[in-house]
Design brief:
The structure holds two protein chains of two kinds. Chain A is mostly helical. Chain A has a single domain, classed as Up-down Bundle (Methane Monooxygenase Hydroxylase, Chain G, domain 1), CATH 1.20.58.220. In chain A, 84% of the residues lie in helices and 0% in strands. Chain A has six helices and no strands. The longest helix of chain A is centred in the first third of the chain and has 34 residues. Chain B is an alpha/beta fold. Chain B contains eleven helices and ten strands. Chain B is globular, with a radius of gyration of 21 Å. The chains are: A mainly alpha, B alpha/beta. At the A-B interface, helix 3 of A face helix 9 and helix 11 of B.
């Protein structure tokens, strides 16, 4: 039994989950900063979580390379390390997209017309990130598949929001600026959900050895 | 940073990398026809059974690696493939080992001729206390494969070249083989095995006593030799098996747990025991 290697893998996973937690915090704060027009919350992302996320990405990637070189992992361990390398990338991107939302929150904006379902889209997106990370914790490919399904739902909400905002802009040209800022946030949420999908796919690959990306395999 | 585009290049689409690689799917290999077929092989040392119902095939132009913990039976199995176990007192074999469809344990098989076709390289290089040239020529003499001096010289050069040793020893062919370094001795033994033009090479941990550079040379040699031979290699070095073989068999307590394309077995094995072994979680 390679006890030390197993411990190092556990440490790596813990580290990755810490990074995941920070990304969730960034996203949560970004969404609330926007919906509640809370600039202090927005600033905390830029000052606290974002730099830490970037630092962790570099640190984790170095750690993966070290383990690949020194431990020459096989099978499930090899798949795990390959997955970590990709997941850090997706987490860092989610962090960046959360920063985009934060920046939108810091610009003067008005809240959405009641018809616009941005809060629900934000909730679904946050669920996806959370569930993707949970599936990583518990090696739960079923939960990871749930994330993939939710992505379709988020895409549908985005389409609906886009349609409604276009109608809104056509009716009220003076609302274009507001509508654009909502579009911008919706677009960023949708991309975050895509990265959460990537993470879920990596978890399935790690746990089952099956590559489900692009529907190439069932 | 904007989201990088993930569109395939204009010319792209549908490149199946797997299809071009040997051993890409299941038990098939790009290698050719079946050379050795082992069926229901049981092997005993006295009352102690060391192999249980082993099924295995070896194809043309492939390297099959046998891995597993010490005492799992992989070396015994390898030695069954050219009847190296015959002389062990009290040993007994059941089942069949067919070479090109003919059971090598059947009646009337000439064991010397069999071993010429199925050569063996051992863990510890074992050159004879002769000159370098005489070592390579030994099998030719035993098998009566060459008569004239020019014939011997041609085979010696060809074999030493094939073993990647010619340039290092061509000026001292009449020197004792034991004056060579460990890695050179091992390549000399490979040259000696190649001299009789075998069809299948069995290697029992051929690089386990060698330094990394010499090991690389032996591994590169094995890959080159694959073009002309089938190779079955026993190794304790999982990375070595992963690097050079097309297919890998995992042995455990005298049984074959799993045989699969090497790329599959080392990235996503089908059996939990295999995974436990190759990830070091075993025992």
């Amino acid at each position: 039994m390679r006890k030390h290697f197993a411990e190092e893998l556990d440490d790596l996973k813990e580290h990755l989950l810490y990074m995941g937690g920070l990304v969730e915090t960034s996203l949560h704060r970004g969404v609330h900063a926007f919906l509640e027009r809370n600039t202090a919350l927005a600033e905390s992302v830029l000052k606290e979580t974002e730099p830490e996320i970037n630092r962790l990405q570099v640190e984790l990637d170095q750690e993966v390379l070290r383990l690949l070189a020194l431990q020459q992992p096989m099978a499930v361990d090899l798949r795990f390390l390959a997955a970590v390398l990709k997941i850090t990338n997706d987490l860092e991107r989610i962090g960046d997209l959360a920063v985009n939302i934060v920046q939108a929150a810091m610009r003067p904006h008005e809240l959405a017309p009641a018809i616009i379902d941005l809060p629900r889209m934000a909730e679904r997106t946050q669920f996806m990130v959370h569930a993707a990370l949970d599936s990583l914790v518990s090696r739960d490919a079923q939960l990871a598949r749930q994330v993939l399904i939710t992505d379709d739902e988020v895409d549908r909400i985005r389409d609906q929001i886009f349609r409604e905002l276009i109608q809104h802009m056509t009716r009220e040209p003076q609302a274009i600026e507001l509508a654009l800022s909502l579009l911008f946030v919706a677009r960023n949420l949708e991309r975050i959900s895509d990265h959460a999908t990537n993470i879920a796919e990596d978890v399935i690959f790690w746990v089952e050895g099956v590559d489900v990306r692009h529907h190439l395999q069932p | 940073m904007p989201n990088a585009t993930r569109n395939p290049p204009e010319t792209g689409g549908g490149i199946d990398f797997g299809a071009a690689l040997p051993g890409a799917s299941g038990n098939e290999t790009a290698a050719g026809r079946e050379r050795i077929a082992v069926r229901n092989l049981n092997f005993y040392y006295g009352s102690h059974q060391v192999l249980f119902e082993v099924q295995e095939t070896v194809h043309e132009h492939e390297i099959l690696a046998l891995i597993g913990p010490s005492g799992c039976g992989k070396s015994t199995f390898l030695r069954c493939l050219n009847r190296m176990n015959d002389t062990i007192p009290g040993s007994r074999l059941e089942g069949e080992v067919a070479l090109d469809g003919r059971n090598i344990y059947g009646p009337g098989v000439d064991v010397i001729a069999l071993r010429r076709r199925v050569g063996m390289i051992f863990q510890r290089s074992n050159p004879f206390p002769f000159t370098i040239a005489a070592n390579v020529a030994y099998g030719l003499k035993v098998n009566g494969l060459a008569r004239r001096r020019s014939e011997f010289e041609a085979v010696i050069e060809r074999s030493l070249r094939a073993a990647g040793l010619w340039d290092e020893v061509k000026d001292r062919l009449d020197k004792p083989a034991l004056s060579l370094s460990g890695g050179q001795q091992q390549r000399l033994c490979i040259a000696r095995a190649l001299a009789v033009e075998p069809e299948i090479l069995l290697m029992d941990e051929p690089a386990s006593a060698l330094d990394p550079i010499t090991t690389t040379r032996i591994e590169e040699l094995a890959i080159e030799l694959k073009a002309r031979y089938s190779i079955v290699i026993v190794t304790h070095n999982l990375q070595q098996a992963a690097r050079i073989s097309d297919r890998t068999s995992f042995f455990l307590m005298g049984r074959v747990v799993e045989t699969d394309a090497t790329r599959k077995l080392f990235t996503n094995p089908s059996r939990q025991e295999t995974e436990d072994y190759i990830t070091g979680r075993f025992g």
